[in-house]
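Figure 6 in text form: structure in, sequence out.
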């Protein structure tokens, strides 16, 4: 049975005047994630009426932003831990004081500071050669590839749209909500993917952008020559942004091959060596050079399971009869 408390009881708890039974009731109520939004609203109202302290605004903001800006979830943490860390733990003294301080500072300095990006968003970031799963509060899962960054609202999806920002590569398994809240993945000011409930992969690297749809349906909104356009996708579609900024749609593609990196597996289908070299640098941070331009045009087909750049380069070199040489921080591929 869910416990219900009154606003007055919470205010007494925050003021330190609650008895042991009331403290237990309040803490049990806060533990219920369904009460997070109400708690945030009441906490803000309490701080508005009776702030705990009048801070040195510059020092308080500097301290708060420093803590938030360094709040990047390391890939070494298990995925569930990452999810739990994205939600505030209201029961340690450190966490309590932090959230009270955040509310007080927010009220004092006004909405201008509140809308600063570090206060609004939490960032998940992976290093080269590392992947992780991020579980969002709505039940959606994001498999984040190496050298990628996902930005999500710090205090949950409170708006009509579930907005997240992606730099790099990820596979999204989006949960449907009872209120049909849209889910939008934004990769730039000119490109975003909108969905209600589906599974799809997004590739957003400097060398290009593409979307592969496994199930459900998505709409791509993009800008070309200052004109807003949209493209609807169906399962099996692959959308690629061409050099002119337009979205080209390819039908009946094997979209299951676009996130095999989750299994440390790479599937190539007549893939050019130049694209493999670019992928190695993106995913592993390893610079690779080719001894001549002709090598860049050669292609490879196959399904390879590798743990790192060295294993992948060894496999490619053996298949294509190439030689791998270490040249300082750069690897040189050359013909035998």
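Output sequence:
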């Amino acid at each position: 049975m869910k416990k219900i408390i009154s606003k007055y009881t919470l205010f007494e708890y925050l003021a330190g005047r609650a008895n042991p039974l009331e403290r237990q009731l309040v803490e049990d109520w806060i533990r219920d994630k369904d009460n997070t939004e109400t708690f945030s609203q009441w906490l803000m109202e309490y701080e508005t009426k009776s702030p705990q302290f009048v801070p040195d605004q510059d020092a308080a903001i500097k301290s708060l932003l420093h803590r938030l800006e360094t709040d990047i979830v390391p890939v070494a943490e298990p995925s569930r831990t990452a999810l739990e860390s994205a939600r505030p733990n209201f029961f340690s003294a450190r966490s309590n004081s932090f959230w009270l301080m955040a509310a007080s500072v927010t009220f004092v300095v006004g909405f201008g500071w509140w809308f600063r990006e570090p206060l609004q968003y939490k960032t998940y970031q992976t290093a080269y050669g590392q992947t992780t799963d991020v579980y969002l509060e709505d039940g959606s899962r994001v498999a984040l590839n190496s050298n990628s960054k996902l930005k999500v609202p710090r205090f949950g999806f409170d708006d009509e749209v579930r907005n997240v920002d992606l730099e790099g590569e990820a596979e999204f398994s989006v949960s449907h909500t009872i209120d049909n809240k849209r889910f939008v993945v934004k990769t730039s000011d000119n490109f975003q993917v909108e969905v209600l409930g589906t599974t799809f992969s997004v590739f957003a690297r400097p060398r290009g952008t593409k979307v592969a749809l496994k199930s459900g349906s998505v709409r791509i909104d993009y800008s070309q020559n200052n004109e807003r356009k949209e493209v609807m996708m169906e399962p099996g579609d692959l959308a690629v942004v061409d050099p002119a900024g337009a979205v080209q749609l390819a039908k009946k593609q094997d979209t299951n091959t676009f996130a095999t990196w989750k299994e440390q597996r790479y599937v190539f289908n007549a893939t050019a060596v130049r694209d493999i070299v670019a992928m190695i640098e993106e995913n592993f941070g390893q610079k690779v050079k080719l001894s001549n331009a002709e090598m860049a045009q050669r292609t490879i087909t196959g399904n390879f399971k590798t743990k790192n750049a060295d294993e992948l380069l060894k496999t490619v070199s053996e298949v294509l009869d190439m030689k791998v040489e270490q040249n300082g921080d750069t690897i040189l591929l050359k013909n035998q």
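Caption detail: The first strand starts at residue 72 and ends at 73.
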